[in-house]
Amino acid sequence: MDLPRRASTMTPGQRQLAEAMQRGDHFLGEQVHRLETSRYTDPERHARERETFFRGFPTALCPSSLIGTNELVRHDLTGLDLIVTRDAEGKAHVLANSCLHRATRLVEEPGVHPAKKIICPYHAWTYTPDGALRALPRPDSFPGFCKDGQSLTAYPVAEHGGLIWFIGNPDAPPDFSEIEPLGPELDAIGLGDIAVFARATHAVEADWKMVVDAFCEGYHVKRLHARSIGDYFADGVSVADRIGPHQRFIVGRTDHASEVDLDDWSAVREVMTFTYQVFPNTVVIVSPDYVNVLVVHPCGAGRCRVENFMLVPGEREVDPEAMRPRWQKSWELLDGHTFAGEDFRAAALCQRGVETGHRDTMLLGTLETGVAIFHAECDARLAQGVT
Ligand code: FES
Ligand SMILES: [Fe+2]
To answer: What's the 340 CA to ligand 2 centre distance in angstroms?
Structure first.
Protein backbone atom coordinates (compact mmCIF):
# COMPACT_ATOMS: atom_id res chain seq x y z
CA MET A 1 0.00 0.00 0.00
CA ASP A 2 1.20 3.44 -0.87
CA LEU A 3 1.38 6.27 1.62
CA PRO A 4 -0.02 9.48 0.15
CA ARG A 5 2.60 12.10 -0.38
CA ARG A 6 2.86 15.72 -1.43
CA ALA A 7 6.14 15.17 -3.22
CA SER A 8 5.88 12.42 -5.80
CA THR A 9 9.51 11.41 -5.41
CA MET A 10 12.19 11.26 -2.78
CA THR A 11 14.11 14.41 -2.01
CA PRO A 12 17.61 14.52 -3.54
CA GLY A 13 19.03 13.81 -0.07
CA GLN A 14 16.79 10.80 0.50
CA ARG A 15 17.76 9.45 -2.90
CA GLN A 16 21.48 9.92 -2.28
CA LEU A 17 21.22 8.01 0.96
CA ALA A 18 19.20 5.24 -0.69
CA GLU A 19 21.87 5.01 -3.39
CA ALA A 20 24.52 4.70 -0.68
CA MET A 21 22.60 1.78 0.75
CA GLN A 22 22.32 0.18 -2.68
CA ARG A 23 26.07 0.51 -3.13
CA GLY A 24 26.49 -1.39 0.09
CA ASP A 25 27.94 1.50 2.09
CA HIS A 26 27.69 0.89 5.79
CA PHE A 27 27.33 3.49 8.46
CA LEU A 28 30.01 2.16 10.73
CA GLY A 29 31.98 5.13 11.89
CA GLU A 30 35.64 4.48 12.42
CA GLN A 31 36.25 4.46 16.09
CA VAL A 32 34.94 3.53 19.48
CA HIS A 33 33.58 6.41 21.56
CA ARG A 34 33.32 6.84 25.29
CA LEU A 35 30.60 8.86 26.95
CA GLU A 36 30.75 9.87 30.58
CA THR A 37 27.69 8.54 32.39
CA SER A 38 27.14 11.74 34.40
CA ARG A 39 25.50 13.31 31.36
CA TYR A 40 22.45 11.21 32.18
CA THR A 41 22.36 11.89 35.91
CA ASP A 42 23.70 15.38 36.63
CA PRO A 43 20.76 17.61 37.68
CA GLU A 44 22.68 20.78 36.85
CA ARG A 45 23.30 19.56 33.30
CA HIS A 46 19.67 18.52 33.04
CA ALA A 47 18.57 22.06 33.96
CA ARG A 48 20.88 23.54 31.33
CA GLU A 49 19.53 21.14 28.70
CA ARG A 50 15.97 22.12 29.56
CA GLU A 51 16.82 25.77 29.20
CA THR A 52 18.96 25.50 26.07
CA PHE A 53 17.16 22.83 24.06
CA PHE A 54 13.59 22.97 25.30
CA ARG A 55 13.13 26.70 25.82
CA GLY A 56 15.36 28.01 23.08
CA PHE A 57 15.06 25.62 20.15
CA PRO A 58 12.06 24.57 18.03
CA THR A 59 10.60 21.25 19.15
CA ALA A 60 7.73 19.23 17.74
CA LEU A 61 4.46 19.14 19.65
CA CYS A 62 2.19 16.98 17.52
CA PRO A 63 1.27 16.07 13.95
CA SER A 64 -0.60 18.82 12.09
CA SER A 65 -3.36 16.33 11.30
CA LEU A 66 -4.21 15.96 14.99
CA ILE A 67 -6.32 19.15 14.96
CA GLY A 68 -8.60 20.51 12.26
CA THR A 69 -9.85 24.09 11.85
CA ASN A 70 -11.59 25.43 14.95
CA GLU A 71 -10.25 22.58 17.09
CA LEU A 72 -7.83 22.44 20.00
CA VAL A 73 -5.92 19.93 22.04
CA ARG A 74 -4.46 20.37 25.52
CA HIS A 75 -0.75 19.61 25.74
CA ASP A 76 1.02 19.42 29.08
CA LEU A 77 4.00 17.15 28.36
CA THR A 78 6.52 19.95 27.88
CA GLY A 79 6.26 21.13 31.47
CA LEU A 80 4.29 24.12 30.19
CA ASP A 81 0.54 23.75 30.34
CA LEU A 82 -0.42 24.54 26.74
CA ILE A 83 -3.32 24.46 24.35
CA VAL A 84 -2.68 23.93 20.67
CA THR A 85 -5.41 25.43 18.50
CA ARG A 86 -6.21 25.88 14.84
CA ASP A 87 -8.26 28.92 13.86
CA ALA A 88 -10.89 29.21 11.12
CA GLU A 89 -8.20 30.19 8.60
CA GLY A 90 -6.26 27.04 9.41
CA LYS A 91 -3.46 28.77 11.31
CA ALA A 92 -2.05 26.92 14.33
CA HIS A 93 -1.48 28.65 17.68
CA VAL A 94 0.22 27.50 20.86
CA LEU A 95 -1.21 29.26 23.90
CA ALA A 96 -0.74 29.21 27.65
CA ASN A 97 -3.58 27.26 29.21
CA SER A 98 -4.22 29.98 31.79
CA CYS A 99 -6.93 32.61 31.92
CA LEU A 100 -6.07 36.31 31.85
CA HIS A 101 -8.45 36.93 34.73
CA ARG A 102 -7.32 34.78 37.65
CA ALA A 103 -5.02 32.34 35.87
CA THR A 104 -7.51 29.44 35.89
CA ARG A 105 -6.69 26.47 33.69
CA LEU A 106 -8.90 26.92 30.66
CA VAL A 107 -8.94 23.44 29.17
CA GLU A 108 -8.94 20.48 31.50
CA GLU A 109 -10.01 17.54 29.34
CA PRO A 110 -7.47 15.68 27.22
CA GLY A 111 -8.25 14.91 23.60
CA VAL A 112 -9.27 17.06 20.67
CA HIS A 113 -12.18 19.50 21.14
CA PRO A 114 -14.11 22.02 19.05
CA ALA A 115 -12.60 25.45 19.69
CA LYS A 116 -14.54 28.14 17.90
CA LYS A 117 -14.33 29.82 21.26
CA ILE A 118 -12.57 28.95 24.50
CA ILE A 119 -14.64 29.72 27.58
CA CYS A 120 -13.02 29.85 31.00
CA PRO A 121 -14.88 27.51 33.37
CA TYR A 122 -14.67 29.99 36.29
CA HIS A 123 -16.19 33.35 35.23
CA ALA A 124 -16.67 32.65 31.53
CA TRP A 125 -14.14 34.99 29.98
CA THR A 126 -14.15 33.97 26.32
CA TYR A 127 -11.28 33.71 23.86
CA THR A 128 -10.99 33.11 20.14
CA PRO A 129 -8.75 30.25 18.90
CA ASP A 130 -5.89 32.68 18.31
CA GLY A 131 -5.97 33.54 22.01
CA ALA A 132 -7.62 36.97 21.74
CA LEU A 133 -9.97 37.92 24.58
CA ARG A 134 -13.35 38.28 22.90
CA ALA A 135 -15.74 38.90 25.78
CA LEU A 136 -16.05 39.03 29.54
CA PRO A 137 -19.24 39.14 31.62
CA ARG A 138 -20.01 42.39 33.42
CA PRO A 139 -17.19 44.42 31.88
CA ASP A 140 -18.49 47.37 33.90
CA SER A 141 -16.99 45.70 37.00
CA PHE A 142 -13.47 46.13 35.54
CA PRO A 143 -13.19 49.92 35.28
CA GLY A 144 -10.13 50.93 33.29
CA PHE A 145 -9.70 47.46 31.78
CA CYS A 146 -10.10 47.26 28.02
CA LYS A 147 -10.42 43.82 26.47
CA ASP A 148 -9.21 45.00 23.07
CA GLY A 149 -5.70 43.81 22.34
CA GLN A 150 -5.68 41.42 25.33
CA SER A 151 -4.58 37.91 24.52
CA LEU A 152 -3.50 34.65 26.11
CA THR A 153 0.26 34.21 26.22
CA ALA A 154 1.26 32.91 22.78
CA TYR A 155 4.39 30.91 21.95
CA PRO A 156 6.25 31.05 18.62
CA VAL A 157 4.72 28.38 16.37
CA ALA A 158 5.26 27.03 12.85
CA GLU A 159 4.11 24.10 10.74
CA HIS A 160 6.62 22.28 8.59
CA GLY A 161 6.52 18.80 7.12
CA GLY A 162 3.18 17.92 8.70
CA LEU A 163 4.21 18.69 12.30
CA ILE A 164 3.37 21.59 14.60
CA TRP A 165 6.56 23.03 16.12
CA PHE A 166 6.91 25.58 18.87
CA ILE A 167 9.56 27.34 20.92
CA GLY A 168 8.99 27.04 24.67
CA ASN A 169 9.67 30.68 25.42
CA PRO A 170 7.00 33.20 24.48
CA ASP A 171 9.62 35.95 24.21
CA ALA A 172 11.95 34.02 21.89
CA PRO A 173 12.25 35.21 18.29
CA PRO A 174 10.21 32.95 15.99
CA ASP A 175 13.29 31.43 14.37
CA PHE A 176 12.48 28.01 12.89
CA SER A 177 15.34 27.97 10.39
CA GLU A 178 16.97 24.89 11.96
CA ILE A 179 13.95 22.68 11.33
CA GLU A 180 12.79 24.17 8.01
CA PRO A 181 15.04 21.88 5.90
CA LEU A 182 13.09 18.94 7.35
CA GLY A 183 9.87 20.20 5.73
CA PRO A 184 10.52 18.75 2.25
CA GLU A 185 11.84 15.52 3.80
CA LEU A 186 8.70 14.92 5.83
CA ASP A 187 6.44 16.13 3.02
CA ALA A 188 8.07 13.52 0.77
CA ILE A 189 6.94 10.79 3.13
CA GLY A 190 3.47 12.28 3.24
CA LEU A 191 3.45 13.27 6.90
CA GLY A 192 1.15 16.22 6.31
CA ASP A 193 -1.41 14.15 4.46
CA ILE A 194 -1.87 11.22 6.78
CA ALA A 195 -4.16 10.84 9.75
CA VAL A 196 -3.46 10.09 13.41
CA PHE A 197 -4.56 6.49 13.96
CA ALA A 198 -3.48 6.26 17.59
CA ARG A 199 -1.47 8.13 20.19
CA ALA A 200 -0.18 7.11 23.60
CA THR A 201 2.07 8.58 26.26
CA HIS A 202 4.60 6.48 28.15
CA ALA A 203 6.29 7.46 31.41
CA VAL A 204 9.89 6.21 31.24
CA GLU A 205 12.30 6.14 34.18
CA ALA A 206 15.20 7.33 32.07
CA ASP A 207 16.81 10.56 31.04
CA TRP A 208 15.29 11.82 27.79
CA LYS A 209 18.60 11.26 25.94
CA MET A 210 18.57 7.56 26.84
CA VAL A 211 15.36 7.18 24.84
CA VAL A 212 16.69 9.19 21.89
CA ASP A 213 19.86 7.04 21.96
CA ALA A 214 17.80 3.91 21.31
CA PHE A 215 16.71 5.35 17.95
CA CYS A 216 20.20 6.44 16.87
CA GLU A 217 21.70 2.97 16.52
CA GLY A 218 20.81 -0.34 14.92
CA TYR A 219 23.19 -2.44 16.99
CA HIS A 220 20.42 -3.54 19.31
CA VAL A 221 17.77 -4.33 16.71
CA LYS A 222 18.54 -8.04 16.22
CA ARG A 223 19.17 -8.54 19.96
CA LEU A 224 16.74 -6.43 21.99
CA HIS A 225 13.99 -6.87 19.39
CA ALA A 226 14.65 -10.57 18.75
CA ARG A 227 11.08 -11.44 19.70
CA SER A 228 9.31 -8.52 18.00
CA ILE A 229 10.66 -6.80 14.89
CA GLY A 230 14.22 -8.17 14.82
CA ASP A 231 13.54 -10.60 11.98
CA TYR A 232 12.43 -7.79 9.70
CA PHE A 233 15.89 -6.24 9.68
CA ALA A 234 19.40 -7.11 8.59
CA ASP A 235 22.09 -6.93 11.25
CA GLY A 236 23.77 -3.53 11.39
CA VAL A 237 22.97 -2.64 7.78
CA SER A 238 22.40 1.08 7.87
CA VAL A 239 23.52 4.31 6.28
CA ALA A 240 23.18 7.79 7.68
CA ASP A 241 23.86 11.42 7.05
CA ARG A 242 23.01 14.72 8.64
CA ILE A 243 20.64 17.57 7.96
CA GLY A 244 21.97 20.40 10.12
CA PRO A 245 21.78 19.17 13.72
CA HIS A 246 19.48 16.29 12.76
CA GLN A 247 20.31 12.76 11.58
CA ARG A 248 18.76 10.79 8.75
CA PHE A 249 19.18 7.02 8.78
CA ILE A 250 18.15 4.18 6.55
CA VAL A 251 18.02 0.80 8.24
CA GLY A 252 18.03 -2.14 5.82
CA ARG A 253 15.30 -4.71 5.95
CA THR A 254 16.31 -8.30 5.41
CA ASP A 255 15.07 -8.16 1.82
CA HIS A 256 17.76 -7.26 -0.58
CA ALA A 257 17.74 -3.51 -1.21
CA SER A 258 20.14 -3.36 -4.12
CA GLU A 259 17.66 -4.05 -6.92
CA VAL A 260 14.78 -1.90 -5.78
CA ASP A 261 13.70 0.83 -8.21
CA LEU A 262 14.43 4.11 -6.46
CA ASP A 263 11.65 5.79 -8.46
CA ASP A 264 9.14 3.52 -6.75
CA TRP A 265 8.73 5.07 -3.31
CA SER A 266 6.51 2.37 -1.86
CA ALA A 267 8.88 -0.37 -3.05
CA VAL A 268 11.76 1.55 -1.46
CA ARG A 269 9.92 1.73 1.85
CA GLU A 270 9.39 -2.04 1.78
CA VAL A 271 13.15 -2.64 1.94
CA MET A 272 14.54 0.52 3.54
CA THR A 273 13.28 2.02 6.79
CA PHE A 274 13.96 5.76 6.86
CA THR A 275 14.35 7.13 10.37
CA TYR A 276 14.92 10.74 11.39
CA GLN A 277 16.43 11.83 14.67
CA VAL A 278 15.21 15.39 14.83
CA PHE A 279 17.29 17.41 17.26
CA PRO A 280 16.74 17.45 20.12
CA ASN A 281 13.89 15.12 21.02
CA THR A 282 11.85 13.78 18.12
CA VAL A 283 12.11 10.56 16.13
CA VAL A 284 10.23 9.82 12.90
CA ILE A 285 10.18 6.21 11.71
CA VAL A 286 8.82 5.45 8.24
CA SER A 287 7.41 1.93 8.01
CA PRO A 288 6.06 0.62 4.69
CA ASP A 289 2.44 1.63 5.33
CA TYR A 290 2.46 3.89 8.40
CA VAL A 291 4.70 6.38 10.18
CA ASN A 292 5.53 6.72 13.87
CA VAL A 293 6.40 10.09 15.39
CA LEU A 294 7.87 9.86 18.88
CA VAL A 295 8.43 13.00 20.94
CA VAL A 296 10.51 12.59 24.09
CA HIS A 297 9.70 15.14 26.81
CA PRO A 298 12.05 15.43 29.79
CA CYS A 299 10.19 15.74 33.07
CA GLY A 300 13.02 15.79 35.60
CA ALA A 301 16.52 14.35 35.87
CA GLY A 302 16.29 10.65 35.02
CA ARG A 303 12.65 10.76 33.91
CA CYS A 304 10.80 11.48 30.73
CA ARG A 305 7.52 10.96 28.95
CA VAL A 306 7.33 9.77 25.38
CA GLU A 307 4.35 10.55 23.19
CA ASN A 308 3.98 8.15 20.29
CA PHE A 309 1.77 9.00 17.32
CA MET A 310 0.97 6.44 14.63
CA LEU A 311 0.02 8.06 11.33
CA VAL A 312 -1.80 6.21 8.55
CA PRO A 313 -3.23 7.08 5.14
CA GLY A 314 -6.53 8.97 5.23
CA GLU A 315 -9.92 8.06 3.83
CA ARG A 316 -9.08 9.35 0.38
CA GLU A 317 -6.38 6.72 0.03
CA VAL A 318 -7.71 3.57 1.67
CA ASP A 319 -10.79 2.19 3.35
CA PRO A 320 -9.94 2.81 7.03
CA GLU A 321 -12.40 0.20 8.27
CA ALA A 322 -10.81 -2.49 6.11
CA MET A 323 -7.36 -1.49 7.28
CA ARG A 324 -8.21 -1.06 10.96
CA PRO A 325 -7.36 -4.63 12.12
CA ARG A 326 -3.98 -4.51 10.39
CA TRP A 327 -3.14 -1.08 11.78
CA GLN A 328 -4.30 -2.10 15.22
CA LYS A 329 -1.98 -5.10 15.12
CA SER A 330 0.92 -2.90 14.04
CA TRP A 331 0.11 -0.41 16.81
CA GLU A 332 0.12 -3.12 19.45
CA LEU A 333 3.33 -4.65 18.13
CA LEU A 334 5.19 -1.35 18.02
CA ASP A 335 3.75 0.83 20.77
CA GLY A 336 3.19 -1.77 23.45
CA HIS A 337 5.68 -4.45 22.60
CA THR A 338 8.63 -2.97 20.72
CA PHE A 339 8.78 0.58 22.08
CA ALA A 340 7.41 0.27 25.60
CA GLY A 341 8.41 -3.33 26.30
CA GLU A 342 11.84 -3.22 24.68
CA ASP A 343 13.29 0.20 23.74
CA PHE A 344 11.93 2.17 26.71
CA ARG A 345 12.59 -0.69 29.08
CA ALA A 346 16.20 -0.92 27.90
CA ALA A 347 16.55 2.86 28.36
CA ALA A 348 15.24 2.58 31.92
CA LEU A 349 17.61 -0.31 32.69
CA CYS A 350 20.53 1.66 31.27
CA GLN A 351 19.50 4.65 33.42
CA ARG A 352 19.32 2.39 36.47
CA GLY A 353 22.82 1.14 35.70
CA VAL A 354 24.40 4.56 35.29
CA GLU A 355 22.71 5.79 38.47
CA THR A 356 24.47 3.10 40.49
CA GLY A 357 27.70 4.99 39.86
CA HIS A 358 29.58 1.77 39.14
CA ARG A 359 30.81 3.09 35.84
CA ASP A 360 32.05 6.58 34.97
CA THR A 361 31.97 6.00 31.23
CA MET A 362 30.14 3.89 28.71
CA LEU A 363 31.37 2.51 25.43
CA LEU A 364 29.91 3.05 21.96
CA GLY A 365 30.93 0.78 19.08
CA THR A 366 31.02 1.74 15.44
CA LEU A 367 27.41 0.59 14.96
CA GLU A 368 26.44 3.18 17.59
CA THR A 369 28.08 6.18 15.93
CA GLY A 370 24.68 7.92 15.68
CA VAL A 371 24.55 8.05 19.48
CA ALA A 372 27.99 9.67 19.59
CA ILE A 373 26.90 12.23 16.99
CA PHE A 374 23.73 13.10 18.90
CA HIS A 375 25.70 13.65 22.11
CA ALA A 376 28.38 15.68 20.34
CA GLU A 377 25.60 17.95 19.05
CA CYS A 378 24.18 18.29 22.57
CA ASP A 379 27.62 19.10 23.98
CA ALA A 380 28.43 21.66 21.32
CA ARG A 381 25.17 23.51 21.87
CA LEU A 382 25.46 23.42 25.63
CA ALA A 383 28.99 24.80 25.33
CA GLN A 384 27.68 27.67 23.22
CA GLY A 385 25.01 28.28 25.81
CA VAL A 386 22.68 29.42 23.04
CA THR A 387 21.18 27.65 20.07
S1 FES B 1 -10.46 32.93 36.07
FE2 FES B 1 -11.06 32.77 34.02
S3 FES B 1 -12.84 33.95 33.91
FE4 FES B 1 -12.23 34.16 35.97
FE1 LIG C 1 14.78 -0.28 19.06
So the answer is: 10
Domain positions in the chain are 12-56+194-384, 59-166
- SS3 assignment, position 154: strand
pLDDT at 345: 98
Best of 83, 95, 101, 141 for a ligand 1 pocket test (most atoms within 8 Å of beta carbon): 101
Is residue 198 within 8 Å of residue 326, measured between CB atoms?
no
pLDDT score recorded for residue 3: 54
DSSP 279-312: TTTEEEEE-SS-EEEEEEEE-STT-EEEEEEEEE
Which of residues 282 and 256 earns the better pLDDT score? 282
- Distance (angstroms) between ligand 1 centre and the Cα of 109 equals 17
pLDDT, averaged across the chain: 94
> pLDDT, tens digit, for every residue of 306-357?
999 999 998 777 888 889 999 999 999 999 999 999 999 999 999 999 999 9
Quick one: CATH architecture of 12-56+194-384?
Alpha-Beta Complex (3.90)
Nearest alpha-carbon partner for 348 in 38, 40, 35, 33: 40
**Shortest-distance Cα residue to atom 1 of ligand 1:** 102
> pLDDT at residue 195 above 60?
yes
Decide: residue 369, CB within 10 A, 0-12 exposed, 13-18 middle, 19+ buried.
buried
| For ligand 1, atom 3: residue with the closest CA | 123
Determine the pLDDT at residue 255.
66
Whole-model pTM: value is 0.95
* Architecture per CATH, 59-166: 3-layer Sandwich (2.102)
Helix (H) or strand (E) segment spanning residue 227: none
